[in-house]
Amino acid sequence: MNAAGEGLDRVFTALADPGRRAMIDRLAQGPASASELARPLTLALPSAMKHLAVLEASGMVSSQKAGRVRTYRLAPGAFAALEAWVAKRKQAWSAQFDLLDAYLAQTKSGDDQ
Q: Cα separation of 69 and 64, whole Å?
């Protein structure tokens, strides 16, 4: 598998967990500390840190430590690989539906004769 595929696998793995998706949703509102991200999920801080490590390894979030506080934020372009993957599939599906539409139109016009 190529590097792009491995990166996409990490993104899908990161998004597979509902708690991590909730963290992403929260970070869409702006930066937050690990404890702020853990609190609504009722996670212990060590568990939250493991989830955040998965998100960071996927490239979806970045962090910065200032003193004892680590602040997380969505990484620029965090969803670019995912969006490109979905767009490629959407384009292929649209092409298939266009072929089906053309076939059905041809079949229907053949029925009218």
A: 8
Give 22-47 as a DSSP string.
Answer: HHHHHHTTS-EEHHHHHGGGT--HHH
The model's pTM: 0.74
d(CA 45, CA 34): 7
pLDDT tens, the chain, 113 aa long: 665 667 789 999 999 999 999 999 999 999 999 999 999 999 999 999 999 999 999 999 999 999 999 999 999 888 888 888 889 888 778 777 877 888 888 888 766 55
Q: Residue 20 is inside which H or E element, if any?
A: helix 18-27
Nearest to 31 by CA among 68, 61, 57, 56: 61
